[in-house]
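Case study B.
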Amino acid sequence: MSKIRGIIENFIADYVGSYPTKKNTDTTWLPPLVAYADAADSRFLELKNIISPSHAVPTDFLPDAQTVIAYFLPFNRVVAKSNILGRESSREWVVAYIETNTLISDLNAALAQKLTKHGYRAALIPPTHNFDKVKLISDWSHRHAAYIAGLGKFGLNNMLITAKGCCGRVGTVVTNAPIGPTPRVDRQYCLYKIDGSCGICAKRCVNDALHKESFDRQKCYAMCLENAARFYDLGLADVCGKCLVDVPCSYVNPAAP
Ligand code: B12
Ligand code: SF4
Ligand code: SF4
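Model:
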């Protein structure tokens, strides 16, 4: 492992580990996962076809970008368990969403400072709310960048399924530090994608948005806004997440041997 890679991984792990005490958060997180993509990976350009022509490439954030650092912050299991029952999101899920977004912004800023001390630069990208509210598509999809970095694979529920499941949030940082890319993952992680089995996430959808054959992002957003209205006292929380919890890929890669 290169020296800077070790520094980054220790820094992210320590930052996330000490955050609940430092910031007195309700949420706690399990140890993070980190992966790296080569900024020149041709799959970033392909996202202009897959997502939208205006989707950014790493050099749009940093002209001399070398690497995209992608990380996954898994929620403590109590957060996911709290969101299983009922149509409404649990208060814990809402709080975890808000606190994790703040954590991602804080962590990115601190990581950028750390990289600067080592002679590198980093561009900061917000965790969410950076999307077109009509098309419901962002010009920088964290999970596609994380997918390219080899952090996980897409599930039927649209989530990036990592080695620690999908109940958590994804962050990315673009830097000019040269760090070799993480090896590509060739296997699927989603059981439905492997052999057509499972599909539990679609059955769990509470607003008829997610089906085995299709996903209606507008119906999904409507449900997220329903929860946002319900929990407006906590801040902007357009969440739901019922298709992530109580499913085989909540905490693990269900296809791991
Ligand atoms: C816009 C948005 C939404 C919209 C639209 C949903 C959507 N699916 O895109 C709304 C508001 C509805 C929404 C809802 C949710 N969101 Co949201 N959302 C985003 C945001 C801001 C941008 C996503 C985007 O533009 N995607 C691009 C579109 C085209 O991708 P897509 O619709 O997912 O479809 C792609 C995949 O299915 C993929 N795919 C499937 N198989 C394969 C195979 C290959 C080879 C490839 C390349 C791609 C691929 O292909 C499709 C097209 O590319 C991101 C943050 C960010 N900036 O990245 C968070 C984000 C995606 N959301 C997240 C979460 C958790 C949620 C919710 C669970 C809400 C919650 N927190 O409770 C729900 C889940 C909905 C669902 N089942 O998809 C997390 C996902 C974490 C994870 N483990 O993956 C993100 C990454 C935020 C974060 N920082 O962690 N979200
Ligand atoms: S619940 Fe099953 S079908 Fe849905 S994403 Fe997870 S593994 Fe795939
Ligand atoms: S987040 Fe909620 S509404 Fe959206 S697909 Fe999942 S269960 Fe359905």
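The mean pLDDT is 95. The remaining cases will be described in the next quarterly update.
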